[in-house]
Amino acid sequence: MPMTPRAGLEVDDSLAAFIETEVLPDLDLDTDRFWSGAADVFARFAPENRRLLAIRDDLQARIDAWHAERRGRPYDVPAAASFLREIGYLADEPAPFVIGTRNVDAEVATLAGPQLVVPGLNARFVLNAANARWGSLYDALYGTDALGDLPAAGDYNPERGARVVARAKAFLDQAVPLAEGSWADFDDPSNGIAMRDPGQYVGRSEKSRLFRHNGLHIEVVFDPAHPIGRTDPAGISDVILEAALSTIVDLEDSVAAVDAADKTAAYRNWLGLMKGDLAETFTKGGERLTRTLAPDRTFTASDGSTVVLPGRSLLFVRNVGHLMTTPAVRLPDGSEAPEGILDAIVTSLIACHDLKRQGRFTNSRTGSIYIVKPKMHGPKECAFTDALFDAVEDLLALPRHTIKVGVMDEERRTSANLAACIHAVRDRIVFINTGFLDRTGDEIHTAMQAGPVVRKGDIKSSDWIAAYEARNVAIGLQCGLSGKAQIGKGMWAAPDRMAEMLDQKAAHPKTGANTAWVPSPTAATLHALHYHQTDVFALRDAIAARPVPGLEALLTPPLASGRNWSELEIAEELDNNAQGLLGYVVRWIDQGVGCSKVPDIHDIGLMEDRATLRISSQHMTNWLLHGVCTPEQVDAALLRMAAKVDAQNAADPLYRSMAPDPANSLAFQAARALVFDGVSQPNGYTEPLLHAFRRRAKGEA
Questions:
Q1: Could you tell me which residue ranges the Malate synthase C-terminal domain spans (predicted)?
Q2: Contacts of 610 (CB under 8 A, 6+ apart)
Q3: What is the pLDDT of residue 284?
Q4: Average pLDDT in the 536-565 region?
Q5: Residue 325 pLDDT > 80, yes or no?
Q6: Could you state, in order of their start, the residue ranges of all structural domains in the chain?
Q7: Is 254 annotated as ligand-binding?
Q8: pLDDT band for position 600 (50/70/90)?
Q9: From CA 543, how far away is CA 356, in angstroms rounded?
Q10: 394: Cβ–Cβ under 8 A, 6 or more apart, which residues?
């Protein structure tokens, strides 16, 4: 690819042009000084980045050898803990401390509500997510299985509509009760609405009344001319909920960004969000539509003053981790630059448009930049990120700790040293979040040589999972995150199963977590109901008073000691893993789709990204290593499931079948490599192989 020399760096032409013609001109930053400063950041941090990755490899090699020597013996947790401390895997606990983060927006610090994660390469999805701050409860209930069944195809069903209205008004009775009677009987808004708690009333617009409960807003829309409002005694046509308080624009697990063109496209979407001018035109139902960012919402309070509420989620950007490099920039020695360092520089540079209030809208009202940093291993890697963000702030002349960090607690060494990790970023941390999927992949890989793990479905009930989730909240509260930062829970991966989500995800606020991930704007609207059911902040004192769970359960891997599975059970497990693996990889390699709703082996659509892929591939690798299955059984499962995945994608005109010629299918060969080369992949990550095969696919195209 054509490269442009800049301050000793070689920068891809398209990326250089994007930064110099689209990003820098409005920021009063001299181009030469920017590139010189960027080159200094790479010179300072690239060698340390490589050294930290070498430490990861060394620790894993020692752990592998320790497990291999003891294979066949009962797992000895105290001995394992002693060994991990001896090699530096377990760090010393810091003295008690409270984080010092300042200038944090309320959506993160003092409110509780859903959080969306959206692929940064898809502008339409990004806009949908950013606009998911507000969602129609009527639409979410009518259009999903939230009521227990799905709507029938065809015209509007009045009977179902009545059930939706009844459910929504029952919610209003619970969240914003009237002084007398039920919302179901309310029939005259003309003389005002008498509330049991008048303080819940916030204001009004021409057609609506706005209320607040547990910090979240509820807008009741009155429109007697609307088809729904015409049938309602009070003319209520909808109930609008404040839903996705925040959204993570993802440059990592949910995107397939393997070269400068991909990176520049993702950065351009982030720029459009920060400037407020991102737009996407598309065809839906035969109609040409253009989507843009939603404006703020304005209401009039009882005293005549104006109430302005954000129309969009507060936006984070998720950078990549420390592992990968990118051909978008080459260092003076000719090597690819660490991608995470490039992300830190460019995403922060772009966010300066928001800080300088140069866009149509404001993202952070407190003047902060929010970056989620994934896949860090332990406190030294967190400290590296803290120092890197210091350097980027200096490069961009930003006050110290303008750049905030969200720490993904998704790797075993971070979980085991969480307090020390928080301490390393204590003045900029705004977020800790459990990520069950990546965390499970790392659990399998770390204990790869210890023995075969239990079946994938059984891992969810392992002791370490419960300890992991409980420790995350307990340690976060102990370190003073409440009122200053988010404590979050992971994703609901079945976007078509909202009734199950309403049942199961109600548990997340009850843990004391003030956010949890959802896969769609509709899911965000429904998940918002849980934060009305549970006042998260009212629970935290009691939760914080409980002792922090110890390390013993956390350090117990999910090994299948003495278990012999039948041939049928082994085949079922291999088929399940192989189907999920191929269903995701084929879109990643052939079409560059990093996150999508992929039918599982039972044809149920699940949101898949690299985290789910990491589990499936590492699980098969583990069973292969320990002789639970043979290479022939793995290959047979992959071939069976290639045919199934081909059939599931038969209606996609862009799809390339795998089963007829697997030897010449890059997607099939990538999936196979993830299993057969899984032991040697750094920490079990899928990115190195995926990137290599995707680049080949793009080259062939």
A1: 570-650
A2: 252, 253, 254, 594, 686, 687, 690
A3: 84
A4: 94
A5: yes
A6: 81-129+249-296+308-554, 136-242, 567-700
A7: yes
A8: confident
A9: 40
A10: 37
CATH 1.20.1220.12 fits 567-700, yes or no: yes
Q: Which CATH number fits the domain 81-129+249-296+308-554, given the four candidates 3.20.20.360, 3.40.630.30, 3.40.50.10840, 3.40.50.2300?
A: 3.20.20.360
Architecture per CATH, 136-242? Beta Complex (2.170)
Q: Do the annotations mark residue 44 as ligand-binding?
A: no
Nearest to 689 by CA among 61, 372, 256: 256
| Paired tokens of 289 | 């539509």
Let me know how long the chain is: 701
Does the fold of domain 136-242 match that of domain 81-129+249-296+308-554? no
What number is the average pLDDT over the span 589-612? Answer: 90
pLDDT at 1 over 80: no
DSSP state of 27: G
Token output for 181: 């009677």
- 48 known ligand binder: no
Per-residue confidence band for 75, with pLDDT thresholds at 50, 70 and 90: very high
Two tokens, residue 473: 């909240």
Task: Supply the DSSP string of 570-626, one letter for each residue.
Answer: HHHHHHHHHHHHHHHHHHHHHH---SEEEE-TTS-EEEE-HHHHHHHHHHHHHHHHT
Asked if 371 and 348 count as a contact pair (C-beta separation under 8 A), the reply is yes
At residue 392, φ and ψ (nearest 5 deg) are -65, -40
Sole residue written with tokens 């010189």: 36
The overall pTM is greater than 0.85: yes
Q: What is the mean pLDDT of residues 548-570?
A: 94
Mean pLDDT throughout 410-430? 98
85 annotated to bind ligand: no
Instruction: Note the pLDDT tens digit of each residue in 154-187.
Output: 999 999 999 999 999 999 999 999 999 999 999 9
3-state helix, strand, coil in the chain (%, to 5): 50, 15, 35
Q: What is the DSSP-derived secondary structure letter of residue 430? A: E
**Residues assigned a catalytic role:** 318, 609
Mean pLDDT, range 614-629, rounded to an integer: 97
